[in-house]
Design goal:
single chain; 64 residues; mainly alpha; 1 helix; 97% helix; 0% strand
C-alpha cells in the first residue's frame, strides 16, 4: 500500500507538471499571437501615416 500511495503521488505530480507546461505553452502562444497581431496593426497604421505624410508633402514641394 505504501508503494501504491507513493506511485499515485508521483503520478499526480507528473500530471500537474504536464498540465502546468501545457497551460504555460497556451499562454505563451496567445501572447505571441496578440503581439504579432499588434505588430501587423501598427505596421498598417504606420503605412497609412507615411502615405498621408507623402501626400501632404507634394503640394508644398511644388510651391518652392
Amino acid at each position: 500500500m505504501k508503494y501504491y500511495t507513493a506511485s499515485v503521488k508521483v503520478e499526480k505530480t507528473m500530471n500537474n507538471n504536464r498540465n502546468l507546461r501545457y497551460v504555460n505553452d497556451v499562454i505563451i502562444q496567445y501572447e505571441n499571437e496578440a503581439k504579432n497581431e499588434e505588430i501587423k496593426e501598427l505596421a498598417s497604421e504606420n503605412q497609412i501615416v507615411k502615405s498621408k505624410l507623402e501626400r501632404n508633402k507634394k503640394p508644398f514641394g511644388t510651391l518652392f
